[in-house]
Amino acid sequence: MSPTEPQHDSNFCFAVPSVLENDRVRVTPFIPPIHLSTYFAASERHPEVYKYLPWGPFSSQEDLGHLVDKKFSKDPGYILFAVFDKADPAPDESKSLGVIAGVIAYGGLPVLVEIGAVIVLPQVQRKDLASNAVGLLLGYALKLPTHPCFRGLRLAQRLGFQMEEILRWDRVLPAWKETDVGNGKGEREGDPRAGWLGRDTVMLSLCWDDWENGGRDKVALLMQRGNNSPGVYAKPGIRRA
Q1: Domains along the chain with CATH numbers
Q2: Sorted alphabetically, which Gene3D superfamilies does this protein's record hold (predicted)?
């Protein structure tokens, strides 16, 4: 580990590396004292990145920090990572991780590993960073020896995920979310949370046999070529056989 790499005392239920990287992106565990202020400053101008998520946008750094602490730091089934664009050097050369480009997470343990909370900031969205970040987490999760432990639907499908099911009414979105992000099924009369939208979630999976029978090569190709596209929120899961 180099002196510039952050130390991380993870509460996650499995060991995670301090760094996953290739020539384009660098993915490290999200450490609030190091990454929170930088990520908030970079993301607060783009509330649209939270459009399909059940939380955000955040009015303050403290609100974001509360979510990170409650959802990702204290829950051993989840861990948040910071994604850095290695092509864009950090303003502070003493922290040569690159400029923060977004976040990504592992979650859903112990039955399956989900790759979710894939947020890539608009200024770097056409630089293939989402494909590379997802590919790095896929490679680590599916690497032998195995353990049980995005951007959107089209990206997940290009990466080789297969449709499993649609989870109807999987999430409740806060009232301040735009009306076009719900499932379009309206509200139940008398619902105590009037104006809160329901969201359906597409569940996709990529299993170890998919990975070893061409999936690894497909992901590697996309990580080199890249082809990010916005789309319906997807919840890719890495199922254990």
Answers
A1: 20-239 (3.40.630.30)
A2: 3.40.630.30
